[in-house]
Amino acid sequence: GNSVTQMEGPVTLSEEAFLTINCTYTATGYPSLFWYVQYPGEGLQLLLKATKADDKGSNKGFEATYRKETTSFHLEKGSVQVSDSAVYFCALSDSSGTYKYIFGTGTRLKVLA
Amino acid sequence: EPEVTQTPSHQVTQMGQEVILRCVPISNHLYFYWYRQILGQKVEFLVSFYNNEISEKSEIFDDQFSVERPDGSNFTLKIRSTKLEDSAMYFCASSTSGGKSDTQYFGPGTRLTVL
What we know:
The complex is a heterodimer.
Chain A (H helix, E strand, L loop, with lengths): L2 E4 L4 E4 L4 E3 L1 E4 L6 E6 L5 E7 L5 E4 L2 E4 L9 E3 L8 E8 L7 E3 L3 E6 L1
Parallel strand pairs in A: 2-12
Antiparallel strand pairs in A: 1-4, 3-9, 5-6, 5-10, 7-8, 8-9, 10-11, 10-12
Chain B lengths: L4 E3 L2 E4 L5 E6 L6 E7 L5 E8 L2 E5 L7 E4 L6 E5 L8 E8 L9 E2 L3 E5 L1
Parallel strand pairs in B: 2-11
Antiparallel strand pairs in B: 1-3, 3-8, 4-5, 4-9, 5-6, 7-8, 9-10, 9-11
């Protein structure tokens, strides 16, 4: 079946450091790919998405490119801030059924001042 | 900006009791979902709902679970006889078209603790 694999956390970075959170997927067909963020005590918020190969999603300085050849959707940010501390979830829309989301395990990011 | 709301934020119950988790999806959305996240584990799909019917359910969603849209605004998840292993964060989500590229909007979650 379809699945998403994310790098294990936690990831601890200093402010202004470069961030990469790896995400790879296994899917039949051509799913859409998403990154969601969960700040402490809050729900899941869409950060960015890409709906076809080579699409780049971007928001709030974060970027991710849909790479069909490597089945990846890595999240990057050039300069993280303390306010970026959160849990980040990679997800795909499962085409076998009602396009439910399949999530990765989540990666906790902690940014130190 | 419209948002999905969920109540209560935290529910504590005894094993064997019934619980109802409530959600108010975004008003013009047509597709509704429940997901859950057991502490430290993945967010898992439970059920999708459209046009007053279950569209898809996972193997987790057994006879102890049911969903309902009792009026034009609420969407509920009922667990008839809770088990210890039902302790989790439950997220409601909604979307406009339910398509492959459609964004699902999530509520803040209800933390269910079964004692």
